[in-house]
Design brief:
By secondary structure, this protein is an alpha/beta fold. The protein folds into two domains: 2-86 and 278-300, 2-Layer Sandwich (ornithine cyclodeaminase, domain 1); 104-277, Rossmann fold, CATH 3.40.50. Helix content is 40%, strand content 24%. The protein is built from eleven helices and 13 strands. The strands form two sheets. The chain has an eight-stranded parallel sheet, with helices on both faces. Strands 1-2-3-4-5 form a five-stranded antiparallel sheet. The two termini are 28 Å apart.
Length: 301
């Protein structure tokens, strides 16, 4: 996780995310197909992702996918990676990057909305960048919520299950990792000084946080262009008149380079994620590069 966060930090420091291609959405029987191409120093890559809402009832993961990584010079295929595993790692790592720069240094209390794969990887990411001591889980499925509590306990973090209102008023860092179409986090409940990572909603008609929260907060996105095209949390807040597009403080490149930063202990900060293809490319190249070193060292031995 820390290696993925560090790789993304270097990339956001050098990159104009608004210049990258947006992903394509295709409605298909059973759900959606996403096409996500990217290119950069790490090479060329494309991720194909399927999202099937009915999979939960089948006992299957919501997301499946593959990522193909090509060499930057020869364009020959270098690797094929599991797209779902890559997505879960890089999404949490980008949230970890935002939290590294925007959350208070003394943040020890974490609330997680949701109890699926992203909730688990976000637990790891938050523990990697802040001294998390306590976790409150807010989830619809009691069994999955209890499983996340047990995972936190195994990591040496005190954890319990709570309500949305309790979590909002208590937490120093909040991660919303749900598939909800309607807000699960009420902006009026969020405590001053909190940092929020809103990552679940990825379409213009879906949101996890309400306009009241964005109106109170310093809002950061991965890319303004992508957020204004896909982030329902932002798009719907603008449509309601809670904020204007100009109220977005900046993107993660601005955060990494210090243009946008936390300015006080009571400032609320929100990072809204939609997911960018270049993030997959960065993490895939970092992972494959590390694997290559291990393989070569093994051959020499």
């Amino acid at each position: 996780m820390t290696g993925a966060i560090d790789a993304l930090e270097r990339a956001f420091a050098e990159l104009d995310a608004d210049a990258l291609p947006l992903r394509s959405h295709l409605d298909v029987p059973g759900g959606e197909l996403l096409l996500m191409p990217a290119h950069g120093h790490g090479g060329v890559g494309v991720k194909l992702v399927t999202i099937s809402p009915g999979n939960a009832e089948r006992g299957l993961p919501l997301i499946h996918g593959v990522f193909v990584l090509f060499s930057s010079q020869t364009l020959q295929p270098d690797a094929i990676l599991d797209g779902a595993a890559l997505t879960s790692l890089r999404t949490a790592a980008v949230s970890g990057l935002a939290t590294r720069h925007l959350a208070r240094d003394d943040a020890t209390r974490l609330a997680i909305f949701g109890a699926g794969v992203q909730a688990r990887t976000h637990l790891a990411a938050m523990c990697a960048v802040r001294p998390i001591e306590e976790v409150l889980v807010v989830g619809r499925d009691p069994e999955r919520a209890d499983a996340l509590v047990r995972l936190a306990s195994e990591l040496g973090v005190a954890a319990t299950v709570g309500t949305a209102a309790e979590a909002a008023r208590w937490a120093h860092v909040i991660c919303t990792c749900t598939t909800s179409r309607e807000p699960v986090l009420a902006g009026g409940d969020v405590r001053p000084g909190a940092h929020v990572n809103a990552i679940g909603a990825y379409r213009p008609d879906r949101r996890e946080v309400d306009g009241a929260l964005l109106a109170r907060a310093t809002v950061v996105v991965e890319s303004r262009r992508a957020a204004l095209a896909e982030a329902g949390d932002v798009i719907l807040a603008i449509a309601e008149g809670c904020i204007a597009a100009s109220d977005i403080a900046g993107d993660l490149s601005d955060v990494v380079t210090g243009t946008v930063r936390r300015t006080g202990p009571r400032q609320i900060t929100v990072y809204k994620s939609v997911g960018l293809a270049f993030e997959d490319l960065v993490v895939a190249r970092a992972a494959v590069g590390g694997a290559g070193k291990v393989e070569r060292q093994g051959r020499r031995a």
